[in-house]
Amino acid sequence: MSSAVQGAPVAHAVGVEEVPDPQAPERATRRTYTAKYKLEVLAEYESADRAGRGALLRREGLYTSLIAEWRKHRDRGALAGLSATRGPKPADPAARESERLRAENARLQAELDTARKVVRVQGELSAVLEQLSGQSADGTSESEPPR
Fold first, then answer.
1. Counting beta carbons within 10 angstroms of the beta carbon of residue 71, is it exposed (0 to 12), middle (13 to 18) or buried (19 or more)?
2. Could you tell me if 9 and 17 are in contact, meaning their C-beta atoms sit under 8 angstroms apart?
3. Suppose 35 and one of 15, 25, 46, 83 were both cysteines; which one would form an S-S bond, judging by CB atoms 3.0 to 4.6 Å apart?
4. Whole-angstrom distance, CA of residue 90 vs CA of residue 92
5. Of 76, 96, 97, 78, which is closest to residue 88 (Cα–Cα)?
6. Dihedrals φ, ψ of 37, to 5°?
7. Is the pLDDT of residue 25 over 80?
């Protein structure tokens, strides 16, 4: 027989609210490391003895495979590229001025082409008007049939 009183709440070692739902596992997030951190850990790892290396890995929560991968990246020079700041590179003032001048040159070329077309059309229109005025001075018109 049980010695528990009926109707009394049962005490649990762990609160029911604290137990995670096994059917809805929490989503793990991927850890990211800066290039500076990787280089510091590699330097400390390589300077430590065997026991010190294990302690470092446990303290930082890392695996030897990750250290090996970071070492490969460092040897290839990839970590140096990662330490550069992200985002657009600051523009060189000379390159920025050169780009501005190229854009202005393209705009002015388009404007010049338009002006040349206008002058050509005006010249053709002037020739047509002169021809029409010469015909009207003679008293003949193209729309009138000859008599």
1. middle
2. no
3. 83
4. 7
5. 96
6. -60, -45
7. no
Closest CA to 42 of 8, 80, 6, 89: 80
Q: Which helix (H) or strand (E) holds 146?
A: none
Q: Dig out the tokens for 13 from the structure.
A: 């070692």
The domain segmentation of the chain, as residue ranges, is 29-84, 92-138
Read off the tokens for 95.
């390159």
Topology of 29-84 in CATH? Arc Repressor Mutant, subunit A (1.10.10)
Which helix (H) or strand (E) segment holds residue 96: the answer is helix 93-138
In the structure encoding, which two tokens stand for residue 105, read together? 């040159």
Pick 91 or 123 by higher pLDDT. 123
Between CA 140 and CA 137 the distance in angstroms is: 8
Split at pLDDT 50, 70, 90, the class of 1 is: very low
Q: Say how far apart CA 105 and CA 124 lie, in whole Å.
A: 29
- The pLDDT confidence band at residue 108, using thresholds 50, 70 and 90, is very high
For the chain, the residue count is: 147
CB 60 within 8 A of CB 41: yes
